[in-house]
Amino acid sequence: MVIIEILNVVLPVFLLMGVGFVVGKWMKIDSKSVSDLSIYVFSPALFFYSISASQMDMGDFGRIVLFAFSLFLIFALFIYAVGKIFKWDKTYQNTLMLASGFPNAGNYGLPIILFAYGEEGVAIGIIYLAMQSFLMNSAGVFYASNHAHVPKKDIFLQVVQMPGVIAILLALALKIAGIPIPAAVENATGLLGQASIPTMLTLLGVTLASIRIKNVLSFIGTAAVFKLIALPALAFLLLGLIYPAGSLEAKVLLVGAATPTAATTTLLAIKFGMNPDMVSSAMFVSTVASIVTIPLLLLMV
Fold it and tell me: What is the mean pLDDT of residues 260-285?
């Protein structure tokens, strides 16, 4: 039964990617323009609406923030250390971080959390999603734009000017201050946000239609192992230091961290020219492999 429910969550993802794949094979699509539309309009609206409309438990907020940022920093150090051992260049390490350091805690993670742990689990998952969205729109932009020829000042400006970062910070500020969102703004951001996920997944299919998997097999294998095994293992160890064993928070956050690579990373890779074929391929393969890893994790915890 668990496998059937998870397939019901995963299969629509593949159907949307399939539509994009077919369109990409038969039509000439300007992926960068579509990517920019999602990054600058649809995704910020989704982040703002998700945070402002959620019932966040501010008492748990601090520990979830601590977990999300600590896990990211630990994993970044892990990638850096492994890169030193195998003498990977900076571009390869940055691409690997994009392909394995950002979980799909939203459109993939939240439905699974809802099925496994109910509305109480979703409330925790939404806070984690907000932190992951912030990391993708700040650290993710840094890794995607950190080419050898790009000045550090320009990278910093790219990060602080990202609409996703602004939307998240604004929504959090309004939430903490208790300022209500006008109904017109909430409805508008909700409608725009609904376009974000199908746009991202369809664009991913378009990108996959133009790549040659055989050219990036080694990278895909490394990224999938890091994302589906190494990152959840580090999350498990970190959660043991923050939450009591077997707590609902620990279970939800572990599942969120164990989800496959977020589709937003492909958008960033396309926008900033950071090996989008490698990032999108790793995202696709990690999503396929998660059909096995996520049910196993749910059975274990």
Answer: 86
Residue 223, pLDDT > 60, answer yes
- Between these two residues, 2 and 115, which has the higher pLDDT value? 115
Angle between helices 109-145 and 163-177 (to 10 degrees): 130
Q: pLDDT tier at 147 (50, 70, 90 boundaries)? A: low
Q: Which helix (H) or strand (E) holds 295?
A: helix 276-300
pTM: 0.81
Could you tell me the domains of the chain? Answer: 2-300 (1.20.1530.20)
Q: Could you tell me the CA-to-CA distances from 118 to 43, 111, 148, 212, 225 in Å, in that order? A: 25, 9, 46, 40, 29
